[in-house]
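Technical appendix A lists one of the benchmark inputs used to test multi-chain prediction within the project. The record comprises two sequence entries:
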Amino acid sequence: QTVVTQEPSLTVSPGGTVTLTCASSTGAVTSGYYPNWFQQKPGQAPRPLIYSTSNKYSWTPARFSGSLLGGKAALTLSGVQPEDEAEYYCLLYYGGTWMFGGGTKLTVL
Amino acid sequence: QVQLQQSGPGLVKPSQTLSLTCAISGDSVSSNSVAWNWIRQSPSRGLEWLGRTYYRSKWYNDYAVSVRSRITINPDTSKNQFSLQLNSVTPEDTAVYYCVRDLNWAVAWWGQGTLVTVSS
């Protein structure tokens, strides 16, 4: 049973930098897992932020970036804003199927 | 501008079949670059990818292991839409269901979501 693991919660100060990670129980996450990242606020659908590890959409704020870090997919927020407080989910591709991580609750405090 | 419009009942009885449809505008269900997915979200199970259908000279389907014995996703080229059927539902299948477009591994275009409650 494959599991995708994210930090359950993180706290960051406004203006600070935080990195969220996404690990796979099958081993190191590579570009072939096509990591996607989503932001979700209460009562809203997930909002796509990043696809294929590091690619941004036209609506993705510049302070969000994606990468591979130490065998995991990573989402870094630089210059965090209060409105970045949300749940963040990663999504990994396993050669035909996708699997979500459990999400990271990001608190901006 | 791609838009996905979901339809289907919000209440399903236990042991019956959950059926949802996703109408596509701004793209074709038969597009060779796209996969059409169903994803659900519940407090107990979080976000869960259920399956997809896609066309690459012929039709293919992939399903999550957790629902593989109960799920069918079908394209309807005449109406440019695709559907989800989930059989033998239980209260555990209560969730918000989304249809989602995946363009070259960019899982980006989501339907509005449909809350489906399984209850007698």
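Chain A has a mean pLDDT of 97. The radius of gyration of chain A is 13 Å. Comparable benchmark entries are summarised in Table A2.
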